[in-house]
Amino acid sequence: MALLDRAAQRLLERLHLRVRPKAASGDQGGHRSDARAHGLEFAERREYVVGDDARKIDWKAFARNRTLSVRTFEEERDARVYVLVDVSASMARGAPPKLEVARQVAASFGFLGMNQVDRVQVIPFADAVERATPVLRRRDDYPGLEAFLQGLLPHGSTTFGATARGFVQRFPARGYVVVVSDLMEAADWAPSLRLLAERGHQLCLVRVRCDEDHAPDFRGELELRDAETGDLVRVTVTPALLAAYREEVAAHVERARIACQRVGGRLIEAPVERPFEQVLRAVIAPALEQR
Questions:
Q1: Which residues contact 177 (CB under 8 A, 6 or more apart)?
Q2: How is the chain split into domains, by residue range?
Q3: In degrees to the nearest 10, what's the CA dihedral of 142, 9, 201, 190?
Q4: Which of 71, 234, 257, 288 is paired with 43 by a 20 to 30 Å CA distance?
Q5: Could you tell me which residues come within 8 angstroms of residue 26 by beta carbon, excluding any fewer than 6 positions away?
Q6: What is the dihedral of CA 98, 104, 110, 112, to 10 degrees?
Q7: Cβ atoms 209, 270 nearer than 8 A
Q8: What is the CATH topology of the domain spanning 6-28+79-290?
């Protein structure tokens, strides 16, 4: 089954991923830079000064007002789009499984990037970064991306701190970083998000969640196994314990949301119980500009 149906692809074809200039590479492509160059689109005219390239003199303007001026242009640059996909064991939970929705979210960002000729790489992670796709730049590369995503299987536990450190070492070029995860690692995500931002990356954190993550329907004496570590714990589940759990999960997600905002990024929720068309619009819309 295709991760993106034709309707989803048609929607994405009409949209453009908005990448801030500081997160774009130095190669020419589809994103505006605040650098001025002899590029693709006229930006402004200014007075000629000694040392300017004579080829940029606007001779038509000189003929009109007898003043030498040069034309400057906005340079357009391409971007690197990195999609980090959580493949830890907790991503197997949910109906449909969280990993299935994460694959679709990753495919959507990948499709967007390739549609505007950016450099796309999808990078799975659990306790560290794993084997990434090669750089994908053309729409013709999309079937290979789908095949790669379909082959991802849930395993291991999330250690996002090690993932972030490994990522900045292996992928030094700055870009647009999308992290797709259920955030079910209890550790503080703020230091890792700051590390990514300090390296010049633009951040988007997509939380793929299921109802069980924040409102489990448990009662009585239970033996619970951690989906990622395999650890067992015996508990007596009471309404008060469930309420405390819900409060802690909400506080954890809110800390991640605030950490994203502080470094100029955003956290977006992607509930697996919703139709994917609704999830797609909610996740993609904040990152886009309409063509």
A1: 82, 84, 167, 196, 201, 202, 203, 204
A2: 6-28+79-290, 29-76
A3: -110
A4: 288
A5: 77
A6: -130
A7: yes
A8: Rossmann fold (3.40.50)
